[in-house]
Specification:
By secondary structure, this protein is α+β, with helices and mostly antiparallel strands. About 40% of the residues lie in helices and about 20% in strands. A four-stranded antiparallel beta sheet has the order 1-2-3-6. It has a two-stranded antiparallel ribbon with strand order 4-5. A hairpin with a 2-residue loop joins β2 and β3 (about 25-30). It comes from Mycobacterium bouchedurhonense.
Amino acid sequence: MANLVSTNALADDPIGGLITVTDAMVHYLTRCCGASAKGSANSATGVVCRGCYRDIDPELGGAWMVDDTDAWQRYEARLVSHLGGSYAATFTERLRARAIERTHSQAGAS
């Protein structure tokens, strides 16, 4: 089972998978394999784990650019609907800061 350490993810999303950032794009990694999502016409959900092809929640197929303010607001709204406002706001802001920091460190390494 994938976790924060094995995937070097930014955070363990409380209602989804693991969240990471690559080339300034924030995206999910699956808990089963630590892999990204992949669309599949043969899946009941339309989205599978790229590692093991298990059906996963279509929300895990989402991605957004680290500087997309509207996308961060949508992400926070999704958390609010499951967890409540103050926790969601704090979690989102910390995650956003870490994603920006990771993006800058990736850019400096290339």
